[in-house]
Amino acid sequence: MSVPLPHPVTGDPFPSPVPPGTGWPGDPATADTPVASTPAQVERLAAGAAGTDELDARVSVCRACPRLVAWREEVAVHGRRASFADQPYWGRPGPGFGDPDGEVLVVGLAPAANGTNRTGRMFTGDRSGDWLYAALHRGGYASQPRSWASGDGLELHGIRIVAAVRCAPPANKPSTTERQTCGHWLDRELQLAAPRLRSMLALGSIGWDAALASARRVGWDVPRPKPRFGHGAQARLVTDEGREVNLVGSYHVSQQNTFTGKLTEAMLDEVIARL
Length: 275
Description:
The protein is an alpha/beta fold. It has helices at 39-47, 52-59, 66-78, 116-119, 127-138, 176-193, 204-217, 255-260, 265-273, and strands spanning 97-98, 104-108, 159-163, 199-203, 234-238, 244-250. It has a six-stranded mixed beta sheet, sandwiched between helices. It is globular, with a radius of gyration of 17 Å. The two termini are 30 Å apart. InterPro entries: UDG_Type-4/5, UdgB-like, Uracil-DNA_glycosylase-like, Uracil-DNA_glycosylase-like_sf.
């Protein structure tokens, strides 16, 4: 299901990509939100975010990775799927979504070109999101089992969703440099969540590696050698204040995994139950 989102005031279609501060449902940024244009600026702006609202706003306007910026905006203007031809596209990085005070953090890979890059909300508007939110609903974290637009009324309770890389990458493969640059946003996510965080769910090996690398960078105790990823894998992390955090791995909710049966609903439900 796709829902055109006219401007709430003028009724006109939003331009693509969507500029900050134009009234898009869930847009955390304003015209005055500082924009990171280099990796050094990402590190500085991430570290200076006082809370998740400010962090989300700064993430949502980031322009530090030229290849990713060019790709996400190309898709937003010229790369639309025919079924979404009448839809405005977000065309910006995907901010975090969910409960800012949640005790659980989900770390995904990156936005989908016609999913988050279209709707502006993590795992919204694609088949991966259909699987994830249905499972979170069954687990008691999501208010509804479906997610199709940023204004669809979905709410998360006790859980927040972020990604290792915040822009849709070509062929779903971010470069090492892009992953390192975006890692600063995840570092701040962990720091802000640390006082209450109980567990993390890493979707796929990239989410797993990103969570471990970020935990080390912010001074948490991480087992050595590095825990190996696998579906159902677990690792015990300890924050710099001595809180234990349980990292749980899951195969990613990609169509490649769900269509082939590599990941089933029962398997996903089982790891979510551990959170």
